[in-house]
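User:
Note these tokens:
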Amino acid sequence: MVPTLVSRFGVRESFARQFLIVCMALGFLALIAAGVGAAWLTSRNQDHTRWVNHTYQVEVAIGEVSVLIERGEASRRGYLLTRQQPYLDTYNDVAAKLPLAFDRLQQLTSDNPVQQAAIDVFKTRLTELKARRDATLALAQAGQPDAAIAEFATESVPRRMMKLRDMAAAMRDREKQLLITRDAEQQDNIRAFYITLALAGLFVVLAALASLATILRYTRDLNASRDALRDFADSLEEQVDARTADLSRANDEIQRFAYIVSHDLRSPLVNVMGFTAELDGAAAAISALIDRAEQDAPQIVSEEARLAAREDLPEAIGFIRTSTQKMDRLINAILKLSREGRRTIAPAPVGMDALVETIGRSLQHLIDDKGATLSIDGKLPDLVTDRLAIEQIFSNLIENAVKYLQPGRPGRIVVRGKRVGPRVTFEIEDNGRGIGPADHTRVFDLFRRAGNQDQPGEGIGLAHVRALAYRLGGVIDVSSELGKGATFRLDLPATLHETEGKP
């Protein structure tokens, strides 16, 4: 009702719901994009920080190599001038540390071919410098200080040192340039993130505004629909009461009509049955007369008369009697249904275990004749319902299960039940001959029977069961396959209120 009213007064409910879902999806996508951008920028920042630290480590390593070179040169000059052992020890210590410092520098710049080439040149020049230093120190250690000083004076050490300093400075400049480049990339990343964040925010704001406008429009239309629905509901109760009264009157009329028709049909039926008895007596007298005529004057008895008296007439009377008896049973069934429809339902507590056991004892002779067993699977939930109606339902179902067992197979009938919320479901399961799928609905129709008609009955039992189930506020259905038994499921309210049991 509400969707119809909403579509009448404005935005369709389905369109509003779909539009809101689209807006929410866009908002979520924008947030996801912002989250992905933040994660990407964080990763880039981490990479940038790592490379910045790496650049600083390279600069420190270059500075460490430069310091060691300067210390080595200073300690050599100190030893040549003073020939004191501490200067020589310092020189030897520097000479031992320098290769390690170069290895660390080379390892740090392994990703930079330019720096690697510069380090190779640096090492070559330092090797040449070290050879000159070792030569002068060897002269001084051999007791030739003057020769060592003279050799030192002829060296071009200042030029070599300047070259080494320039090379170290060039390597540091390259690292600084890398740092500038990486800072520029970092700024580009930050700008891209802010652009992404701005676009995501714009999408979120637009989606929020569109959703808000749709909700306001939908709310306005829904209020209008609610007002119309309230106006409609004010008159609905009166309409329902009026139609319920009409249905009750119609139902009562149908019940009275069925009762009157069934009762009126019995009068001519009784006459037919009475005249059939008279005909039967007359047929017996005619047959006796034909017998005497055959004995006294057989020539006056024709073959047609003999057949009519002894075969045709008894056969016709038998057909009439069988038909009237069937008609009588059908009328009695209609009267029974009519009386049951007029009976007042009286809810009362019913112990289902005791009720099924009582039904089992009443059918025990039939169960024993069929070689069957009736059992209750677990504890059956109790009901507050009409005792007579529920007893008739279970009696019909259990009796049918016994009547239609499969010959040659030990019969097994199981009753079980469970409560789900305010309702109870019962199952009556058997391993009998079963019901074909095409007859699952038909078996509940009046005067309809399924399968082999080898059992007495008029086809009103299950129709009566369904009518009683409806009156008790429930439904009944069946699941079955031919040759594999049947399971009737009865769904009822656990507590029947008096209003539910009205016809």
Observations:
- The chain has three domains: 2-220, 242-341, 344-501.
- The beta strands are 347-350, 372-377, 383-386, 411-420, 423-430, 475-480, 486-493.
- The chain has eleven helices and seven strands.
